[in-house]
Each structure stands twice: as C-alpha cells, then as structure tokens.
Design a protein that fits this description.
This protein has helices spanning 130-142, 159-168, 190-195, 212-215, 234-243, 269-275, 280-286, 303-313, 325-333, 339-353, 397-419, 424-431, 435-444; strands at 5-8, 11-14, 17-21, 30-32, 37-40, 47-48, 59-64, 67-72, 79-81, 84-86, 88-91, 95-99, 102-108, 112-115, 121-122, 125-126, 149-152, 177-181, 220-224, 245-246, 255-256, 260-265, 289-292. The chain is of the alpha+beta class. Strand 20 (245-246) and strand 21 (255-256) form a beta hairpin.
C-alpha cells in the first residue's frame, strides 16, 4: 500500500525512481511508483530475470515518502546492497543491488506530489488515512470488473468486509456471495469441499455434495485463508480458475461455472511461494489485483472515524458525543493485536454496558490495558446473589470492571489452551489473533501450552 506523508488536503509526496538490470537483454528502465514492482524469475513478474540463482518471486520495489522501499520476499539467495544482505531498505541515492547473480541499477527520481482520492469510505469501511483512501479508490474501480482479487493483511483488518463490499459494488450484487474458509478444511477433504463430490466417491461420502463454486453461480466466491490450502489441491484450483469449470470428486464430467473469485490470507504468500508451500502460478492467477490492508496501528488517525461509524451502525447516532478525548488518546496508545475487529468488539461492549448519558469508555474494554488478574473465576460459582462478582461489592465501577475483564482474559485463554491442546497456532486461529499476541496473553496470565506441536508460549 501507499505509505505517504500528507502535504495538502489530498496531496502526498512520494519518492520514486527507476531500475534495470546492469547488463544483458531487456535492460530498459522500469519506473518505480506507488504500485509495487516485483522482480523475479517467474514470467508474471514485472521485471523477469533469466538467472538460476534468482527466486521465482525475489524482491519488491515501491515508492514511499521515505524513498523507494526494497523488500526481499523470502528469496533463497538473498538481496544484497553494497555486499550486505538486506530484508528491507529504503533507497534515496543511485545504488547498485545484487539479486541472485544479477546486478541491478537504481536511480532516484525527484520527489513527486500526487493527488490522493478523497473517497473516505467503501461499503462499511471508513478512513481518513491517505493510504486507506488510495485503497478505497482502487477498490471502487476494481469492483466494476471481474478481476480476481487477493486481499492480504493481519487478522482483524477487515479482509472479509472488503470482499463483501466488492461483491455489493459489482454487477453480481444480486447473485450469491459464498464464503469458503480454507483454514478450517481438513487436508484430506480439501478437494471434495472445494469442488463437491458424488455419492460414494470416498468413505463417508454417503450423499452427493454440491461445490461452493456451483452455489455461487453468477455471483462471487470468497476463498478465505487461501494460504492454508494443501499444496496438492492447488493445481486443481488453478485449473478451475483458468478454465472456469470444475469436476466433483468421483465425477466423470466437468461443469462450467460463472463466478468471480476473491481470496484473502493473513500469510505472506510470496514467501510461501519461495519456501515451496504455495504455487507461484496460482499466486499470480489469484493476485490479478492485490489489496494489502494495513494494521490499525499503522492508521491510528482513523480511530475516531471508525468509532463514530461503529456507534452509528449500533443505531446510536449521538453516541460519539459521549466519547471523551482522554478515551481516544488511550485508544491511540494501544498496540491493537486484533486490529479493527478488536476495536469493534470494545465499542460494542462499552456501548452495551454504559448507562444512558454516561461516558462510553471504549478504552476500558481493551485487554492489554488491564492490570494483572485477581484470583477466582469470572463466571459461575461463588455464594451470594453476585455469583462470581461478590468480591466487587463496594468498589468503584471502573476498578471493578478492570478486574472482571482481566479475569475474563485469563479464563478465556485458559479455556482456549485446553480446547486447542496447547497448540498456539490453533489457538491463534480460533481467537482470530496473531500467534505472537496469543503468546503474550499466555505469558501474562501464566498459562502454559500443553503438548500439541511443541509451540509453547515461552
């Protein structure tokens, strides 16, 4: 995405440049702007290198306000600048780089002021951040096409909302929108789940099952968490996308399908391509258009408009007037492990618990802002009419609420650990969070992983 500094109301300044291989065929200059330029061996890359030491998808160049950002995409042999292997670097002056065994030349261009769209919303999504508004502008144009779109970003950034908004903004709006969660499909059933199966096609196939591609006929199919799809099923999905037809497991004939395909993942699929976990041809087929959603911590200026929109969606037009500046400042200091989804949950809870006319303290309902938990469970047990809340009698409301929420945190992650048998990856999937944040909560509350894949919180 465009990471830019605001210069005027709708103007940003970015620093671009141009690149080319130093020697050999195809040495024409390639301009580097705000759309990423991919360099690699794969024929679908913007700059294709005939170099056996270069990865299929090797490095990415994009103009930002800090200069041209060069990012190695998990290549096997690395990207080097001045003999130093780099993961990410910003170029401001004429530079020579080495990608595989190919020397690349970079020349900077003058800083350029560009106009950013004033579109501040797309479907249910709202923003003031220039980068997000640029994304909204792109989505508005893409919605009217049948291009396949890959939506990336951390858990909770709104990938499914983007997919739904693309569908509603398209000519397929009145047709079905079908979601397939690739992350929840057992590997052995992936092909049958995607393409359907005939009765008796395998053990347990007691009935015929229709493919979600057929269910979405005329509409849109959304492949969520595409990066979790088993490698052996990926060629079959590639064929289905390319030929617009499918064959159910146990079937003998292909069936034509008319669907638009949208996909999302929280994984870095390019790195998965270089690691052998995802096919490069499927990646480029799915990512005809790539939308990278930023984490909420990268767009903190959007918190006020997001909170206002969320309260409006709850049916309370005037509720935002009850949000204090102090609350918004506390929200700005939060690390947002759950991104916009975490903010929405906090807004919903704060609005529900606030009495009429009192301040809506959204920040009081953010887990990592709480103090250490008190002993005793939040739910059930305990004598007296207060159940598990008897120890809160006589205490100030905000203090008592913090303690209850801290206990909830501990009980939630303790139960989650039990359900997932201590597997942190599975806990993260079920909680809709990044693994690093799950580990942080486990450490905070002294919860140990119990077996699983050995992925412990320590």
């Amino acid at each position: 995405m465009l990471d830019a500094t605001v210069v005027g109301k709708n103007r940003v300044e970015v620093r671009g440049g141009r690149i080319k291989p130093a020697k050999g065929a195809g040495t024409a200059w390639i301009e580097v702007g705000t759309d990423p330029v991919i360099v690699g061996r794969n024929a679908a890359c913007k700059v294709v290198l005939d170099d056996g030491k270069c990865s299929a998808v090797h490095a990415e160049f994009v103009a930002t306000e800090q200069g041209v950002r060069v990012r190695d995409l998990g290549s096997r042999n690395g990207t080097f600048v001045g003999g130093v292997r780099v993961g990410e670097i910003f170029l401001l002056t004429a530079t020579k780089l080495r990608i595989g065994e190919t020397e690349m030349v970079f020349e900077p261009a003058r800083p350029e002021r560009i106009t950013v769209s004033n579109i501040s919303s797309f479907g249910p999504l709202v923003a003031e951040n220039p980068g997000m508004r640029a994304i909204f502008d792109k989505l508005t144009k893409v919605a009217l096409t049948d291009l396949t779109v890959l939506i990336t970003g951390e858990t909770g950034t709104g990938k499914e909302l983007v997919a739904q908004a693309l569908h509603r903004g398209s000519v397929r709006e009145k047709k079905p929108f079908v979601i397939v969660d690739c992350g929840s499909i057992p590997p052995t059933l992936a092909e049958a789940t995607l393409f359907g199966h005939e009765r008796g096609a395998f053990t347990g196939a007691v009935d015929k099952r229709m493919s979600p591609f057929q269910e979405a006929e005329g509409g849109t199919i959304f492949l969520d968490e595409l990066g979790e799809l088993p490698i052996d099923v990926q060629p079959k999905l590639l064929r289905a996308l390319a030929e617009r037809r499918i064959k159910p497991v146990g079937g003998s004939t292909y069936r034509d399908v008319d669907v638009r395909v949208l996909a999302a993942t929280r994984r870095d699929l390019v790195r998965a391509v270089n690691a052998g976990g995802f096919r490069s041809d499927l990646y480029f087929r799915v990512a005809q258009v790539k939308i990278e959603l930023p984490a909420l911590r990268q767009r903190l200026e959007d918190i006020p408009v997001l909170v206002r929109r969320m309260l409006k969606d709850l049916g309370d037009e005037t509720a935002y007037e009850r949000i204090s500046t102090h609350t918004l400042e506390r929200l700005m200091r939060h690390d947002w492990p759950g991104n916009v989804r975490e903010l929405r949950n906090a807004v919903v809870v704060a609005h529900a618990l606030a009495t009429e006319g009192e301040e809506i303290d959204v920040a009081a309902h953010l887990g990592s802002l709480q103090e250490a938990p008190l002993p005793g469970p939040v739910f059930g047990g305990g004598g007296g009419s207060g159940g598990g809340f008897g120890s809160l009698k006589g205490r100030q409301f905000q203090d008592a609420k913090r303690d209850v929420l801290a206990r909830f945190e501990r009980d939630y992650f303790a139960a989650l650990s039990d359900e997932a048998k201590g597997n942190v990856s599975e806990m993260a999937r079920r909680a809709g969070m990044e693994r690093a944040h799950v580990r942080a909560y486990l450490r905070r509350h002294g919860i140990s992983a119990k077996g699983g894949d050995g992925d412990s919180p320590e």
